[in-house]
From TrEMBL:
GO terms for biological process: L-methionine salvage from methylthioadenosine; purine ribonucleoside salvage. Keywords: Glycosyltransferase, Purine salvage, Transferase. Residues 2-233 form the Nucleoside phosphorylase domain. Phosphate binds at T8, R44, H45, T176. This is Purine nucleoside phosphorylase. Pathway: Purine metabolism; purine nucleoside salvage. It comes from Methanococcus aeolicus (strain ATCC BAA-1280 / DSM 17508 / OCM 812 / Nankai-3). It is an enzyme of class 2 (transferase). Belongs to the PNP/MTAP phosphorylase family. MTAP subfamily. GO terms for molecular function: S-methyl-5-thioadenosine phosphorylase activity. Substrate binds at M175.
Amino acid sequence: MIGIIGGTGISTILNKGREEIINTKYGNAKVLIDKESDVVLLFRHGIRHNTPPHKINYRANIMALKQLGVDKILAINAVGSLKEEITPGSFVVANDFIEFTKERKSTFYDGENGEVVHIDVSEPYCPQMTELIKCLLNNRGYKYCEGTYVCTEGPRFETKAEINFYKTIGDIVGMTAYPEVVLARELQLCYGSICTVSNYCTGISKSRLTISEVYETINEMENEILNIVEDIINYKRDQCSYCKNILNDAKM
């Protein structure tokens, strides 16, 4: 099965399947399961977007997908652009991350089960999924680039001073990439991210940033997002040995 994780604005675009509550040792996760296409939809913020990014139960979400038999995940992240050439309405395929979060549970290996794991994240996003996403974007003729995702704690937007710093080390800013990508890696799930650029960041934009601007851009990109999701679902998926064996050299 393939899991589709949606973020801001995505629940109004992707909303198909039977709703189920999945119980995990880390809490419950609500998903939509479409058995006809072997797809599980999970909305980080809830269908009504009532969970802020720093309160998302990332461990329950990723474990629920694992328990359902998902082996590949397409994550959709709404982001702000740190670079003028990365324009709102375009896509960024995340190929690395830098995180500035503070209070999130970020590992399944916290010592409770007696295991210590130092997971490799030299390529945090599955190379196979990343190449597939790029291929499908090229086939559709959609504008995109690759880039480094800077993950902040939220829920506030960033200050001008923060953005001036972040743009020296990354390309886009969001609040949800971490620890999701690392948790997927710890469970040996193939995880790729396609980021929808909804706005320019504070200080780069010539106007005050509002959440309505974010939703407006996501709505304008609706058809493109749906097309890529459909392409991912319909693509013949092979097992990825890179992610499948990642724990072999990680456990102490």
